[in-house]
Each structure stands twice: as structure tokens, then as C-alpha cells.
Amino acid sequence: MTSDPERSPPPTDPTGSPPAPVAGWLVDRRGALLRLAGVAVAGGLFTRFLTPDRPRAGGQLRVASADVPRDGALVFERQRVAIVDRAGVRYALDLRCTHLGCTADVGADAIRCHCHGSVFDLAGGVVHGPASRALEALPIREDGDVLEVLL
Ligand code: FES
């Protein structure tokens, strides 16, 4: 009497345990892929955390001096720069948060990063973290009625 290989029961392992169902294998494979993707994302975030922001591309911003409000700020969202006026003294700040690089918002009394809650004073100094470094001050010069910020 010969056995038909297509009708024979599935092989069992030497311990006698039944083989794992195919669906379980798929779930395990899917779980492994999800874990691998999670590790890749976490690695990317960790690398991003350890590396400083990319330097600015260079160039300059030119704006009419009269456009900067007295005791206020003129914000250039695309360039992520603010020209701040405090009692007639003007300076430019890079609004890239020194924590992880989100763009900080200039308010009436502080500059806030909404990503993780860092707060900077209007001079760019850290009020509270997680950011530990002040916002970068950018070179600015006044040329007649024009302000020029070097990016
Ligand atoms: S990126 Fe600004 S607080 Fe984290």
C-alpha cells in the first residue's frame, strides 16, 4: 500500500506540535514589517535629533525700513525670519526652533514653538525648553530706508 503525498497530513515538528497556521505566519510577517518600519522611523527621528538644522541657503532679504512696525515684528514666513523692533532697535531672528527645527511664532510678548512648547523671549533667548539654545540672530544692516538681512 502506497500513500498519496497530496493526501498525507501536514508534517508535524518533532515535539508533536501542530504547524503554525498560515494566517499566523502572515500576521507575524506583517508584525515584523511594522516593527521594522517603526525602527526605521525612530532611527530617522533620532538622527534628526542629533544633527543640526541645515544651514541657510544664503542670500538676503531686503525690506523698506518703514514696513517694520515700531515695537513689533515683521515676519517672513517662507524664509522663517522675523525682523523685530524694540524701542527703535532692530534685529533679525531665525525663527527655526533650536530644538528640532519647527518654525516658531512671534507673539506680542514671546516667541513660541508649538511643536514641543519651547518659549523664547523677544530677543531670542530661551525662556523654557525643551530648546536649550537661543534663536539665531541674523546679520542685519540698514542702508538708507532699506533693511537688509543676510540669510
Ligand atoms: S521643535 Fe520647537 S520645541 Fe521642539
CATH superfamily of the largest domain: Rieske [2Fe-2S] iron-sulphur domain
Text of the CATH class of the largest domain = Mainly Beta
What's the multimeric state? single chain
What's the average pLDDT? 81
- In total, how many domains does the architecture comprise? 2
Q: What percent of the residues sit in helical stretches (DSSP H or I)?
A: 10-25%
Radius of gyration (CA) equals 29 Å
Bound molecules: FE2/S2 (inorganic) cluster
Q: Mind telling me which CATH architecture of the largest domain this is?
A: 3-layer Sandwich
CATH third-level topology of the largest domain: Rieske Iron-sulfur Protein
The number of helices is 1
Order of strands in the sheet with most strands: 2-3-4-9
Number of strands: 11
Determine the strand fraction and express it as a percent band. 25-35%
Low-confidence stretches: none
**Outline type:** elongated
Distance from first to last alpha carbon: 87 Å
Q: Structural class given helices, strands, pairing?
A: alpha+beta
**Sheet of most strands:** 4 strands, antiparallel
Order of helices and strands: HEEEEEEEEEEE
Describe this structure in words.
The structure is a single chain. The chain is an alpha+beta fold. The chain has 2 domains: 20-51; 60-150, Rieske [2Fe-2S] iron-sulphur domain (Rieske Iron-sulfur Protein), CATH 2.102.10. It has one helix at 22-50, and strands spanning 60-64, 73-76, 81-86, 89-94, 105-106, 111-112, 119-120, 126-128, 137-138, 140-143, 146-150. It has a 4-stranded antiparallel beta sheet, with no helix packed on it. It has a 4-stranded antiparallel beta sheet with strand order 5-6-7-8, with no helix packed on it. A hairpin with a 4-residue loop joins strand 2 and strand 3 (81-86). The model has no long low-confidence stretch (mean pLDDT 81). The structure holds FE2/S2 (inorganic) cluster (FES).
